[in-house]
Structure formats: C-alpha cells, structure tokens
Fold this protein.
Amino acid sequence: MPDAPHDAPEATAYTPPKVWTWKQGNGGQFANINRPVAGATHEAELPVGRHPLQLYSLGTPNGVKVTVMLEELLAAGHTGAEYDAWLIPINTGAQFGSGFVAVNPNSKIPALLDRSPVAQGGEPIRVFESGAILMHLAEKFGAFLPTAPAARAECLSWLFWQMGSAPFLGGGFGHFYAYAPVKIEYAIDRYAMEVKRQLDVLNRLLAERRYLIGDDYTIADMAVWPWYGALVKGQLYEAGEFLQVHEYTHVQRWADEIAQRPAARRGRMVNRVWGEPSSQLHERHEASDFETKTQDRLAPQTPAV
C-alpha cells in the first residue's frame, strides 16, 4: 500500500457516534447559553420606550450594523428614525426570554420592533436578522440603498455577501481561534484561510472603489464595516498579527474613512459593554445620552453588601 501523502491530516481519536447527543457542559465559555432547541426558557417581557423604533441588541458587530444605520439616518435628517436601544446581555441568556423570542424566534441579536403603525391603529412590525433590519430601515426612509436597478443589485449583493461570509469569520475563525476550549490546528487553519480570502476579495474591490459599490456610502458598507473593518484594525479576537491584516491596505483605508464618520462612531458605542468606559453607552434613548450616560459619566454603583 502506498504511503499516505505528507500533507494528509493526522487521524483523530474522535469517531462520531451514529446519533449525536447533547453534552450540556460542552462548548467552552458559551456552554451555558448554547442548546440544540429553540424557544423561550423563561418569561420576560421586553421594555418599550417612547420612540417608534425599539431595538433590542448588544454591541457586537451584528448589533453595530443597525445602530450605525440608525445614527446615520438621524444625521441625515430623518427624525422618524429616533429609537430606543435596549441592552440584551446574551451571556446571561436574555435572548431566550419570552418577549425577545416573540420578536425574534431565532433568539439572536439584533431584533427590531417597528411600532410606527401603532399610531394608525396597526400592529407593530417585527424585523430580525441584521441584513433584514438594514433593508427595512433603508426602504422605510429611502436612504442608503440605491434605487437604480444596477446599483441596487450591487448594494444588495454585497450586503448578502456579508451575511453569508461573516459566519466563517465569527462562528468559524473567531470561535476556534479565540473561544474553543481546545485549539484545533485544522479548524484554525481552515477558517484563517477563508477569512484571508474574504479580506482579499474586499481589498481587490476597494482598490478600485471608495466604498463597496462606488462613491456612495450604503447599507452594504454599514454591514461589512463592523466585522471586517474591526478585523483589519486589530479589534477582533486579537488576531491582527496572526492574520497579517496590515497587508490589506485598501480595506484599511476604507475602514479608517468610515471610522471618522460621527454617526459611525456613535453607533459603535450603543449597547457596548466592553472597552473604555467612555466608549460604552449601554442603552440609548435620546441623542443627549452620548453626552451624559456613557459609563465614564455615570456614578459608580455601590457594591451590595
């Protein structure tokens, strides 16, 4: 029998059983919230503020997409885009409360409840999945989504590129590189290769364009920037050196330009619960909250005795 190729993967000691069973302690730091079934685990109503748009989220890249969009709409003069942003701490399982599940049966942030129809006697509109929320808002306000057929198709193509690609970055590379309880060389290599391929896709595109579809800033940029913009600036998974992100100079330029937009800076602060206290606005209910309610401006809580 011929020798196995030198690059063949080593045999693993794990053989999948005929029927998979759930080991509740398995899954690293997310073991307490990961489960193989859907639905609510407890009763918990969602709060509702005074604005038509109610956002239930967390300042992860998927959440940032929507808060950047809302802040950009307000900056562009769309006063109807005023919103309340409520914090959903997913590490405690808040996304499995009955109220949240009613808005998003998939129990993932972000979720939006558009209560605008209520004023006319209608029912609130639930929107979940970040890409769907961006499209809903863009069409509702007629902003950041081109109307010309070719440009619209290009914009939506890059929006859905992000929706399809980011799971390889977050759930694939990020999980196995940063969060998995054991380091698996094959898994890290597999997803690192794919993430670098995706960065090369963006780098080649942005070598020829200011933004993803040309000279216009759109929901495609708002979707891609929180993931890939953060990655090339070394802000995700502490993986900048590992992935040699400095090589993607055109993505770097694009990421820096968006980061200078005041609305993008504000959007990145909303529902953020890590980093410098001045960058964290746990909940957002008024524009003035950015000046008065960031964590560095709030009185420290007295520890319970």
Q: What stands out?
A: The first helix runs from residue 61 to 75.
